[in-house]
Amino acid sequence: MRPRNEPTDAANREYVFKILRFDRRNDQPPRFARYRARAQRGMTVLEALLKIQEDQDPTLVFRYSCRGAVCGSCGMVINGRPDLACRVQLSTLRSHEVLLEPLPNMEVIKDLIVDMEPFWEAYRAVEPWLIADESHGEKEHIVSEKNRARIDSYVNCILCACCYGACPVLGRDDRYLGPAALAKLYRFLEDSRDRRDWRKALERVDAEHGLWGCDTVFRCVMACPKHVRPTDGIEGLRRRLVIEKTAGLFRRRRK
Questions:
Q1: Helices (DSSP H) in the chain: which residue ranges?
Q2: Could you give phi then psi for residue 108, rounded to 5 degrees?
Q3: How many CA atoms lie within 13 A of 85 on its CB side?
């Protein structure tokens, strides 16, 4: 079945790819290289890149793995918007010229590959794993349907870093934890099985480089290929932090 709004002649269209080329190992400045590729019906940006690499330029490099919008490896900027190359079909683009650039807010290693270590460092900083009640032993940790529904969208995050690249805060503050890390923290805040000390966990992100750095302009929401809403999660963490602080103030007054 032909994708919705795909022109009937999509399989015969020639696309011009304008790809940012750069290698930090040499002293040459970034430049755009142009390639032409004829689309087959349903061809994705990733498939076109593989074809260009095989037929025209084997030195072109980019990340990919699953080809099914699951692993998040092929995140890049496509015609000005962060997205997954394996998810975007050429026929859905408005122009026959396709501009491809690496994700912003991270150092470019070569061509479309960026150094994601700052992203992973921020992610690890929030302890993105379930801290369960060990007294359960080997018993199952039951989650209600209501609780599952609250965390479902955040579980869908595939750590592609599209939100990280789209975030304007990271453009001016490289110490900011970023949308993905904070949204993942909220995912565990809302998980009924998690038993971490949330007062301490929230204190660790109670800073300008943490919860209060977000501009709430929702660019991360628009960039997410899995429809996760990191800004909503950050707002949820802020509300919980205010509640914890207010409760602590009342406890001190009682003493």
A1: 45-55, 117-125, 145-155, 162-166, 179-189, 198-204, 219-223, 230-254
A2: -80, 130
A3: 26
DSSP 35-47: EEEEPPTT-BHHH
Whole-angstrom distance, CA of residue 60 vs CA of residue 175: 31
Query: Could you identify the residue written with the tokens 């750069």?
Result: 22
pLDDT at 11: 63
How far is Cα of residue 216 from the mean position of the Cα atoms in its chain? 16
Amino acid identity, residue 243?
I
Q: Is the pTM of this model over 0.70?
A: yes
Name all domains of the chain by residue range, CATH numbers in brackets.
Answer: 10-114 (3.10.20.30), 117-254 (1.10.1060.10)
Distance separating alpha carbons of residues 131 and 51, to the nearest angstrom? 45
**Whole-number average pLDDT of the chain:** 91
